[in-house]
Amino acid sequence: MITMLKTIPRHKLDANAWDVCVATSRQPGVYGYTWYLDAVLPAPGWKWVGVVQVDQTGTYHAVMPVPLRRKMVAGIPYEWVVHQPFFCQFLSVFSADELPDTDSFFRHMVEQFRYGSLYCTNQLPGIDLPFASFQLRTTHVIYLSFGYEVIYSNYTRDRKQNLRRAQRAFELDNRWAIVESSDVEPLLALFRENHAATIDGGVADWAYDMFRNLAQALHKRGLVTLRYAVYNGQIEAGALFICDDRRIIYLFNAASATGRRVNARTILIDQLIQEKAGQKLIFDFESPEKPSIRKFYKSFGAVEEPFQAMRWNRLSKLENLLWTGWRYLNR
């Protein structure tokens, strides 16, 4: 059967056919669904397209999402460039085939889009791509199939001690409680008050709206677990997890000074690990590059899982000069 690769705008994609490719893929899937990409790419200046392997009957055999952001030069919209969105750790070629031809997808993307500021993928192309570079990144994961006793034995001594302290605080003071919720607003408020100021450049309002859209889409499909640690009626910590049939993703969290002091997030994480231990699931911390956070995740006995950060640049010398100059003047 003859197939070809096509770049198809989002509004012309067959969403059902696309999502079947994602659902039957051997790759971790939730980031690749149309509804997920629609939720994390709604902001002004963002969109996504699909690279689709399609045959003469129009059947989708494999798909690859390409997130795009409009870059500006001298205040003028310049070009759509490939850029990884928030809450989307890595993307892939999604196919039911055990060994899909990923190389042709990556070559097609680089040929179609002249600039890739960031494309994260857990599939490394097996060919040399002109103008492209790759940087190894890792997330931290726990294989829950080992069972809780084995998982707990791999916690560091400090993590075990902090967990015991948190458990004692909750047991000895009945003003502490863990509650389940579908309301993300307290979690966002905690983040605004306790974490947003530490992020370079701050956090734009559209990013909060995007998270609300995503949480709503996950809740609609029964894929979200949101829990809060509450003291005397006041929410002091919260954690939102994506839970599908393959992977649990620690997507978003926040804590007040009180929540941090009693290690509330430790008990929220450990509680879910206990509940899901023994199942064929991977718990993914979605580790950022910040060393202190990575150290915290590693203390649960998590191991590194690699993926690649891909970049490329096929702009002309003049275009690169204009772009570099504009960024320098607007630092």
Automatic annotation (TrEMBL):
<protein>
    <submittedName>
        <fullName>Acetyltransferase (GNAT) domain-containing protein</fullName>
    </submittedName>
</protein>
<dbReference type="Pfam" id="PF13480">
    <property type="entry name" value="Acetyltransf_6"/>
</dbReference>
<dbReference type="InterPro" id="IPR038740">
    <property type="entry name" value="BioF2-like_GNAT_dom"/>
</dbReference>
<dbReference type="InterPro" id="IPR016181">
    <property type="entry name" value="Acyl_CoA_acyltransferase"/>
</dbReference>
<feature type="domain" description="BioF2-like acetyltransferase">
    <location>
        <begin position="158"/>
        <end position="280"/>
    </location>
</feature>
<keyword id="KW-0808">Transferase</keyword>
<dbReference type="GO" id="GO:0016740">
    <property type="term" value="F:transferase activity"/>
</dbReference>
